[in-house]
Write a structure and sequence with these properties.
Arc Repressor Mutant, subunit A; five-stranded parallel β-sheet; 12 strands; 38% helix; binds calcium ion
């Protein structure tokens, strides 16, 4: 019981709460719940939640405010529950640092699929606090002369950015970026495949932890969620939209890593 860690359900509708509790505890989580927002923040903090399901409409403070407060001390995997007609809210949720969302009413099957995706995720690096793990300063990419395969390297570097897969931290110019899990996973995937193009469908599966599968359903709003995550990443990276250092849009397809800066300069000089 509870070997997967702690899940917290924040939901004022008793039926939905019971359903969520049942599915999560069946999956192997130790489950706690709260029927209001402030209490929810407290429970997440007290029990060091790994996973949180968060209703948008709560009696005291709304789900976005709960999320904002949770994000100040926790990198738990947060799934927002939104109403069918709350599409703009969904975007707000993802902008505020949610990892995923489920629209209500949802089928238990759908919920189980999302829970399965959570289970494929690595455990949070710490239960207490968002204190960034110490990470090595980024070195010039030309200095990395190790012959090891890229896939096995702990630190992935690109144009002055260093992503440490073990500590799950990203450092740019000596600053550790406060990334959510989804943002980290997307950036890691783009770095991992080098300059190859990742389709939005590929990236949806990365966010869900299903990157080894090609048969799962991906909807348009799933793809839009990836667009929002990438937008958040760009903002945190302070990307220049005219000349991005890391994330390039491949129109109508997806995203890829910007080529290394040395090559870009050469290309520019040849012009
Ligand atoms: Ca509600």
């Amino acid at each position: 019981m509870g070997d997967l860690g702690v899940a917290v359900v924040v939901e004022d509708d008793a039926d939905v709460r019971n359903l969520l509790e049942a599915v999560l505890s069946q999956a192997g989580f130790e489950v706690y719940s709260a029927a209001a927002g402030r209490k929810g923040v407290e429970v997440v903090r007290d029990h060091g939640a790994n996973v949180v399901t968060l209703d948008v409409g709560l009696p005291d403070i709304d789900g976005y405010e709960v999320l904002r407060q949770i994000r100040q001390f926790s990198d738990a995997y947060v799934v927002m529950l939104t109403g069918r007609t709350e599409e703009p809210d969904l975007l707000t949720a993802l902008h505020s640092g949610a990892d995923d969302y489920i629209t209500k009413p949802f089928r238990p099957l759908e919920l189980r699929a999302r829970v399965a995706a959570m289970l494929r995720r690595p455990r949070p690096r710490s239960l207490q606090g968002r204190t960034p793990a110490p990470a090595p300063a980024p070195a010039p990419s030309s200095a990395s002369s190790s012959g090891g395969g890229l896939a096995e390297e702990t630190v992935l570097r690109h144009n002055g950015l260093a992503l440490n897969r073990k500590t799950r931290s990203v450092v740019v110019h000596g600053d550790t970026l406060p990334l959510t899990r989804s943002e980290f996973d997307l950036l890691q995937e783009l770095l991992r495949v080098g300059g190859a193009v990742c389709t939005k469908t590929d990236l949806v599966r990365v966010v869900r932890g299903e990157e080894d599968r090609d048969d799962t359903y991906v909807s348009e709003s799933d793809e839009r969620a990836v667009e929002v995550h990438i937008g958040n990443l760009r903002r945190k990276l302070h990307e220049d939209p005219q000349s991005p250092r890391w994330l390039q849009t491949v129109r109508g397809v997806g995203y890829r890593l910007t080529p290394v800066e040395r090559e870009r300069q050469e290309v520019q000089e040849q012009r």
